[in-house]
Request: fold
Amino acid sequence: MREARELLDRPVQGREVNLKRLVVEIMVKSDRQSQLVRRTGLSGAQVSQSVQELVKDGVLEVDAPGSGRARGRVRLSRMRGVAVGVDVGFNHISAVARPVGDPHDRIAVRREGSGANIGFRRLLPSVLRLVREAVEETNQGMADVVSAGLAVPRMVDPRTGRFTTPVLPPWETDDDPAGELAAELGTPVVMDNDANLGALAEQTYTSEEAVEHVVYVKASTGVGIGIVVGSNLVRGRRGAAGEIGHLTIDPNGEMCLCGGRGCLDTLVGSESLLAKVKQSQRGTARDVPNTLAELVLRAHNGDAVCVRVLNDAGRVLGFALAQLCNLINPHRIVLGGELADARALLLEPCRQELDRYALAGAVARAEDFDLRTSTLSPLAEAQGALILGLRSRSSK
Ligand SMILES: [Zn+2]
Reply:
């Protein structure tokens, strides 16, 4: 069987650069030629000619014309090679693995409930075990891993690929999770902020047709957003774009981890929501939820306090997102992270506040704006890491 590594490791120049970019995009997701034009930035003629050439070489196949969604879809021929994506949250690790020629939703998944709060060095053995198990499930081996991406809940400097300093706890300035993981995997690992990668996955994997401006909101322990415009992530000069969790909502509010006061995180971060439920039960013997997942579950079971806490969180989030809509006018906002498991309990009040505070021109028309909860949850970030890992190979 052909090796994906041969295609990815080969240094290219001239028009071969375009061929490689096309092959990598098809590894990310098989697609129709019209969509590949958009995703690669190549012209229709370039894509068409390159596809013909790569079909002749046995690298690509085109689904026979016929009916249904597969019509004219360009896919990779069978070959060895696995792409890996890892998401390290505060309370979880997710690892996904997929043979590069398989459909994007046919992934091997491993998840575990320990996370960054115990420190990355202690976490690394678990990360490696989950990656290994996921890769084995694809019936290939660790030697077949050709790319890897890592999602972390911190800002990442786009120029260095390392944490943007000062880095907030529990991470430390000299932590190098991508470097440590790369040394163990024997393949380069690229790292980015988890919300950025969620945005990448939502834009790439949830629509047949292109949605150019996508904002992904990751709301769990804290809140961060990823902004993708066209085929570019908006990272900012030092990776601080999208740090909406530290947007000041109440200048006289609670102190935040960042040193600010009344940041969005202090109002809708998981600790704040759990504290509100606890406070409502003071003086009673009732037990209170200890995790955001428990809080959400109780709300779905009709607990009036938990419902109200999530409704209020949706309102505050909607207010913050309304400012964002007036600034960048996204086409789609996707709510992800554990808080989004509240679904309508969060979405509806959020939508009401968007209608109230954002310009009607930005949010009123259904064909120009849509707010939804993530369908890739809880794997959007890991899927985005897999995409980033693959794409990093097209430029090397
Ligand atoms: Zn803050």
User: Anything to note?
Assistant: Residues 304-328 form the longest helix (25 residues). The pocket of zinc ion is lined by residues 246, 256, 258, 260, 263, 265 (CB under 6 Å).
